[in-house]
Amino acid sequence: MAPTPALAAPRPGAPLERTTIDRRDLRPDDVLIDIAYAGICHSDLHQASEEWGEAIFPMVPGHEIAGTVASVGSEVTAHRVGDRVGVGCMVDSCGECEACRAGTEQFCARGNVQTYNGVGFDGENTYGGYSGQVVVRDAFVCRIPDGVGLDEAAPLLCAGITTYSPLNQWGAGPGKRVAVVGLGGLGHMAVKIAAAMGAEVTVLSQSLKKQEDGLRLGAAAYRATSDPDTFTALRGSFDLIINTVSAELPVDSYLSLLATGGAMVNVGAPPVPLSYNAFSLIAGNRSLAGSMIGGIRETQEMLDFCAEHGIGAEIETIGADQVNEAYERVRNSDVRYRFVIDTATL
Ligand code: NAP
Ligand code: ZN
């Protein structure tokens, strides 16, 4: 066991505080990573406040990890000391079930092992990326291509893949009109990636405060959802809506924006139920769908796509002492567009 500094929530909703945790000794297929940056995802807030149900405390959040390989187990061939690597929301899965064989480890029949707030197959609790080092099975470590900085790459490991995957699944590309609801961590990645795929992107944000940014990130249009005219003006005009909102939303109003056969994909994971009128779907053969992160193969594909298109996250780098303040700002939708912890400050 090797000690490493970390930030942990001691109990639900409590401020994060400095602590020290132990990382396991390397197994033959393990990779030890010196973490350089860890992104703050809204899921970290949901879980640290126990908004999604019972969670494990103390909790070291963080599933947007970027760093370099410090050492490898005896059987590791895919990663070498010094490699630039990333780890997302999962650190293990059975590897044998249909989902794992299909490269969708997030749906592992045995349950994937979450990077934090999870329990490994060895029975040990998992602790995430707000820490100095992490030990991860080699198959769950991705390569970060040259040309993408480790700081701007960290958020790709969750925000990037969570938006790339549904855009991919639902055919975002030339000729497709895509709306992104919520311009936060996930939303800004959805805008960049959908634009790079060739889709025509509209941002639907609560206000016009971030309009300039939205257009710079690749959106062709930007509308405020606080303005009721938005919903009449845009009625029936999107093939795909990616909803990244972390809170309750009037789903029917958004479904009315879909063209015939269009789909709204929910990636936002609010702690409260969403409701809709069946006629909002029936009228227009519309779909309401969900999407959960993405598999490891697709995550690597996303990282390579981002490097090829010069895409990284727009980040605000913070030190360990600013984390609680950053949580407050994420809670207030005051983030442009992802906080990344410089783990050297731990
Ligand atoms: P975030 O950075 O806080 O962004 C969420 C955005 O939603 C905000 O910036 C805001 O955008 C909008 N918003 C917030 N509250 C709202 C409200 N009451 N009404 C309308 N809009 C509101 O969060 P994130 O890190 O992108 O995560 C977003 C959600 O996705 C979270 O629930 C998270 O848990 C979930 N998530 C899901 C997956 C998955 O696998 N499906 C993976 C990662 C995260 P505007 O200011 O532009 O309106
Ligand atoms: Zn996340």
Notes on the protein architecture:
The protein has 346 residues and is of the alpha/beta class. The protein has 2 domains: 2-158 and 294-345, Medium-chain alcohol dehydrogenases, catalytic domain (Quinone Oxidoreductase, Chain A, domain 1, Alpha-Beta Complex), CATH 3.90.180.10; 160-290, NAD(P)-binding Rossmann-like Domain (Rossmann fold, 3-Layer(aba) Sandwich). It is built from 11 helices and 17 strands. The chain has helices at residues 42-48, 98-101, 150-153, 159-169, 185-197, 211-217, 229-233, 251-255, 278-282, 296-308, 323-331, and strands spanning 2-8, 17-23, 30-39, 65-72, 84-87, 90-92, 113-114, 133-137, 142-143, 177-181, 200-205, 221-224, 238-243, 258-266, 287-290, 315-318, 338-342. The strands form 4 sheets. Strands 3, 4, 5, 8, 9, 16 and 17 form a 7-stranded mixed sheet that branches. It has a 6-stranded parallel sheet with strand order 12-11-10-13-14-15, with helices on one face.
List the helices and strands and how they pair.
Layout: E1 2-8, E2 17-23, E3 30-39, H1 42-48, E4 65-72, E5 84-87, E6 90-92, H2 98-101, E7 113-114, E8 133-137, E9 142-143, H3 150-153, H4 159-169, E10 177-181, H5 185-197, E11 200-205, H6 211-217, E12 221-224, H7 229-233, E13 238-243, H8 251-255, E14 258-266, H9 278-282, E15 287-290, H10 296-308, E16 315-318, H11 323-331, E17 338-342
Parallel strand pairs: 10-11, 10-13, 11-12, 13-14, 14-15, 16-17
Antiparallel strand pairs: 1-2, 3-4, 3-8, 3-17, 4-5, 5-9, 6-7
Bound molecules: NADP nicotinamide-adenine-dinucleotide phosphate (NAP) and zinc ion.
